Amino acid sequence: MTDVHANDHVELRVPATGAYLAVLRTAAAGLAARLDFTLDDIEDLRIAVDEACALLLPIAVEGAQLTCRFELQDAVLQVAVSVPSTADVPPEPGTFAWTVLSALAGDVEVVRKDGVITLKLSKGRAVASE
Q1: Going by DSSP bridges, is the β-strand pair 65-72/116-124 parallel, antiparallel, or unpaired?
Q2: Can you list the domains of the chain with their CATH numbers?
C-alpha cells in the first residue's frame, strides 16, 4: 500500500453542474486505488460519488460550487459532498437513490448546516481472505 498518513485529505471544488462530475469520479477512483481497494470497490465508489452528486445538484443554489472532500485512512475512504442549498427537504433515507447509494458506499449520512447540505459516505477496503 502507498504511504497514507493520518488525516490525509483531498478537497476539490467544482462548479455545481454535471459537466464536472467526471473529475470527481476520477479523483475518487485514484484515491481508492491508493488505498489498495479492489477494482470492484473502486467502481462502486466512483458510482457512489456520482450518485451523491446527482442527488445534490438539483437542489444546489444557482452558480454554486460543489465541494468534495476525501479523507484517507488506513483502510477507509470517507467522502463528503456538499452544496449550498435553500431546499426545504434534503435527500432522504428510504428513497431508491439513497438505497443505491447505501449499497455502493456502505455508510451514508446527510447533514444540513448553515445553508449547506452535505452527503457523507464511508467506503472501506475489502479484507483479503487467506
Answers
A1: unpaired
A2: 8-124 (3.30.565.10)
Tracing cell 479484507 back to the chain, one arrives at 127
CA angle 89, 92, 98 (to 5 degrees): 145
Residues 39-54, mean pLDDT to the nearest whole number = 93
Report which DSSP code applies to 58.
Answer: G
Supply the pTM of this predicted model. 0.87
Phi and psi angles of residue 101, each rounded to the nearest 5 degrees, phi first: -60, -45
CA of 106: how far to CAs of 2, 37, 67, 78, 99, in Å?
23, 14, 21, 10, 10
Spacing of C-alpha 88 from chain mean position: 22
Amino acid at 43: E
Question: Which pLDDT score, from 0 to 100, does residue 3 have?
Answer: 61
CA gap 35, 16 in Å, rounded: 27
21's grid cell = 462530475
